[in-house]
Amino acid sequence: MSKKFNKILSLVIVAMLSILFVPSIKTKAATNLGDRLLVGYWHNFINGAGIIKLSEVSNSWDVINVSFGETFGDKAVVELHPVYDEVEFIKDIKNLQLKGKKVVLSLGGAEGAIKISTESDRQKFMTSVVGLIEKYGFDGIDIDLEGGSGMILQSGDTDFRNPTTPQIVNFIKSIKELDKKYGSNFIISMAPELSYVQGGIIAYANNWGAYLPLIHGVRDQLDYLQVQHYNSGGNLCLDGNTYKEGTADFHVSMIDMLLKGFPIGGNKNNMFPPLRQNQIVIGVPSSTPSAGSGYTAPAEMKKALDYLIKGQSFGGQYKMEGNGYPELRGMMTWSINWDVKYNSEFINNYRPYFDALPKLNDALKKASISSSDVVNGDYELTVNIPSRNTATSYKVIEGITAIASGTLKPSLTEAQVITNKIINKQIGSYKYTVVLTDEKGQAVTSSELVVTVKDPNENPKPSVDNYDSVHPYTFGDIVIYNGKEYKSQGWWVVGITPGTNDGVWKPMK
């Protein structure tokens, strides 16, 4: 074979690899939403919090969730009966929208069971929801299905990527249809209870983790997720501890799970992928009476917010890796009515807090690259290009050779993800980096990823790879950090830097 032919063949192989790296970009987003959101639930019913009209809602709210669209006789048909005069109700919605507010129909709630386990039920659900959206002019829907709504994993439904529970499958299909029908400015949000989401780290059955296939199935349509950080007691987190709800450690650890990803049922080979920063809204009660448990005093909550958004530690037990999540979207509360009754504590504290945050600016930012586990020489590389990035092109480098390149859309408010399956690699170690370049020719290079393909017949040995902040480690794993070896002391360790906590990473002699 001639050298010229070898060169041509090499170029063809590189070109083929480049084609395999395909950016997966979330193009749908409610583009008329702000970078920071305060979301409040408005009672369309009478209880101890009292009645307020939509016209009386403070201008400090960004999104008002009308609570709730419910079912009565037929559990697939959603109904809404305004708590005050319907003509005035519709007028008030329009006036809020003229002020730049978004008014969303929240579906379900604690008592509003919605069940669509058949295609016939799904069609009735869609007809009823579309009718309400068009009658009242809602800006979107919020999925708030709780215990009575049948959001329960059926026996044998074990893969969140390929759910088989009819209720979940039909909701995924319905949300995608609504998103397609109403377009990019139609809001899709969710407000699940904590056990349905982060509870998936404990188990994946019944209600534990039951929202995960729904979230994953519509992650490209989902504008924001507002998990209820209340009425839960607490939950296992990435450092293996359980923190009491209502504390800064609890809020930080729960959000860190969503933005780092976490193992389903503790299985590190079955990871739930992280969401984007701007998809996360923290759900808290506005006052002690508004929830059974989980109220967080503003001073304590602001400790969590400063750590999460600004990277400013408050000296708590839970430790995050990196400099925080500056694009965290905001906060949600149950509820506007309870907040009014208790001197508007929520809105008076958190509106000034979020308004004072620095404006989010576009910049050239480094990509990150990670790998799946290696199986018989096969693995998948994932490149994450952060949102608000001015990069216009990328190159994926193996060693010193570019194995993929392409163009990027600059300044998107959404992250861009590029994946590729590497097949039949020979035994050895392979180094990968990603170079991003902007229109001015400025370039930034990611941290190096080392992927090791081992002899399948070789006796297993403890890992001595360089420490990776996004890789999950189990008890006994050994890593190298700053030239020193450390041994993991936890059953699940991610995001805790060796040398910062000897109880998690034990220095080896």
From TrEMBL:
Keyword list (alphabetical) reads: Carbohydrate metabolism, Glycosidase, Hydrolase
Tell me, which GO biological process terms does this entry list? carbohydrate metabolic process; homophilic cell adhesion via plasma membrane adhesion molecules
Q: Which residues form the Cadherin domain?
A: 378-464
What Gene Ontology terms describe what this protein does at the molecular function level? Answer: calcium ion binding; carbohydrate binding; chitin binding; endochitinase activity
* Organism domain of life: Bacteria
SMART domains linked: ChtBD3, Glyco_18
Q: Among its keywords, does the record have Hydrolase?
A: yes
Q: GH18 domain location, by residue?
A: 36-357
Q: What is its EC number?
A: 3.2.1.14
List the InterPro entries hit by this protein, alphabetically.
Cadherin-like_dom, CBM5/12, CBM_sf_5/12, Chitinase_II/V-like_cat, GH, Glyco_hydro18_cat, Glyco_hydro_18_chit_AS, Glycosyl_Hydrlase18_Chitinase
Which GO cellular component terms, listed alphabetically, does the Swiss-Prot or TrEMBL entry include?
extracellular region; membrane
Q: Name one Pfam family in it.
A: Glyco_hydro_18
List, alphabetically, the Gene3D superfamilies matched: Carbohydrate-binding module superfamily 5/12, Glycosidases, Immunoglobulins
Q: Which family does it belong to?
A: Belongs to the glycosyl hydrolase 18 family. Chitinase class II subfamily.
The protein in question is named chitinase
Q: What organism does the record attribute this protein to?
A: Clostridium gasigenes
Q: What is the lineage of its organism?
A: Bacteria, Bacillati, Bacillota, Clostridia, Eubacteriales
